[in-house]
Write a structure and sequence with these properties.
Structural class: alpha+beta
Largest sheet: 5 strands, antiparallel
Number of domains: 1
Strand content: 25-35%
Distance between the termini: 7 Å
Oligomer: single chain
Radius of gyration: 12 Å
Order of helices and strands: HEEEEE
Shape: globular
Number of helices: 1
């Protein structure tokens, strides 16, 4: 379960990433260890991310990649 602080940090990091790049207004920003590292046009392919990665959409909804492992990727995205 994500803490409010973790969710707030993820939203702030995502907003900074979107503002810096400008072209990724929609979709989700991918965050690991409180740092944005990528973007996807829609929330998809959890197996391409390691468990624990957060994804923040343009409305501020936060999702966490869960299950699986670092080698095979996560199994699902769940609401954080």
């Amino acid at each position: 379960m994500a803490t409010n602080t973790e969710l707030d940090t993820a939203r702030r990091v995502a907003a900074t990433y979107r503002a810096r790049l400008g072209e990724h207004e929609h979709g989700v920003v991918l965050i690991w260890d409180s740092e944005a590292y990528g973007w996807k046009n829609i929330l998809r392919d959890p197996e391409h991310e390691r468990p624990g990665v957060l994804a923040v959409d343009e409305d501020g909804h936060v999702y966490r990649a869960e299950g699986g492992d670092d080698w095979n990727g996560a199994r699902v995205w769940v609401v954080a």
